[in-house]
From TrEMBL:
Binding locations of shikimate: S21, R22, T23, T73, N98, D113, Y231, Q259
Entry keyword set: Amino-acid biosynthesis, Aromatic amino acid biosynthesis, NADP, Oxidoreductase
Catalytic-site annotation from UniProt: K77
Gene source species: Pseudomonas eucalypticola
Protein name: Shikimate dehydrogenase (NADP(+))
Pathway: Aromatic compound metabolism; 3,4-dihydroxybenzoate biosynthesis; 3-dehydroquinate from D-quinate (NAD(+) route); Metabolic intermediate biosynthesis; chorismate biosynthesis; chorismate from D-erythrose 4-phosphate and phosphoenolpyruvate: step 4/7
A single MF term (Gene Ontology): shikimate 3-dehydrogenase (NADP+) activity
Assembly information from the UniProt record: Homodimer.
């Protein structure tokens, strides 16, 4: 997409407990580098004392205030879908939205998480074994990551979630989109981890506001690669524990950057400089 005549962007992030987010600075700094007036606001449900039942009000308010678009994060990525006018093919297939473009009175949902994780996985886990992978979490981010993992060649993906029915629903959805019944809901975490080549955490566990690990430390081992989507902090307890064992690890930074790269393009109509945005992100996490 080539540069259009848009000279200003008003964007925001809707989610719970998002005060530490790097996303506003990432967008605003790239906007400045592109010569745009770019304002990115946090719409924090926790601070506003709201929950997902108020999403319709927030979307309506954003449209009235001429927002260009919104990013959507935990716990809103699936709850927002019924409130939208249309979905991109990716968002429809994944069943989760992390970016909403507000244009001509319409709300169109997109998913840039899948692309973001896939790009990070290609860059950080090149050559990693992909026969059997365990995924923790089957929420909105988990749905996008699971799609990315199957696109990237994982042969058998075993999904665990605190809500077993949600893990089953995600596996069923994946098997409708990818041939070969490559996804399944997990029953026995210890057994699945023992057989796995790698594991991915797509739960919020490990965030600054939700410390801890999604799996017991004793299930980690040196020959198991470990990937994370949490990026604040960049080194979660899970990654720190895995690295101490000598395991290959991938932090959530690349996914954070590359989902933002695509969201920036959707909001502004301008293809941003991905290397510059990566450098911006790294400077904030130095």
């Amino acid at each position: 997409m080539s540069q259009n005549n848009k000279t200003s962007v008003l964007a925001g992030l809707i989610g719970a407990g998002i005060q530490a987010s790097r996303t506003p600075a990432l967008h605003e700094r790239e906007g400045a580098a592109q010569g745009l007036g770019y304002l990115y606001r946090l719409i924090d449900l926790d601070q506003l004392k709201l929950d997902t039942s108020h999403l319709e009000e927030l979307l309506t308010a954003a449209q009235r205030m001429a927002y260009t678009g919104l990013n959507i994060t935990f716990p809103c990525k699936q709850a927002i879908i019924p409130l939208l006018d249309d979905l991109s093919p990716e968002a429809r297939g994944i069943g989760a939205v992390n970016t909403v473009v507000l244009k001509d009175g319409k709300r169109v949902g997109h998913n840039t998480d899948c692309l973001g994780f896939a790009e990070g996985f290609r860059r950080g886990m090149d050559g990693a074994a992909r026969e059997r992978v365990v995924q923790m979490g089957a929420g909105g981010a988990g749905a996008a990551v699971a799609h990315a993992l199957l696109i990237e060649g994982v042969k058998q993906l075993t999904i665990f979630d605190v809500d077993a029915s949600r893990a089953q629903d995600l596996a069923d959805n994946l098997n409708q989109h990818f041939p070969g019944n490559r996804a399944r809901a997990g029953r026995d975490l210890a057994a699945a981890m023992k057989e796995a080549d790698g594991m991915v955490n797509t739960t919020p566990m490990g965030m600054a506001k939700l410390p801890g690990m999604p799996v017991p430390a004793e299930l980690l081992r040196k020959d198991l690669w470990v990937a994370e989507i949490v990026y604040f902090p960049l080194e979660t307890e899970l990654l720190r524990t895995a690295r101490a064992l000598g395991a290959r690890t991938l932090d959530g930074g690349t996914m954070a950057v590359f989902q933002a790269v695509k969201a920036f393009e959707l909001f502004s109509g301008i293809v941003p400089d991905a290397d510059r945005m990566t450098a911006h992100f790294n400077s904030m996490n130095g």
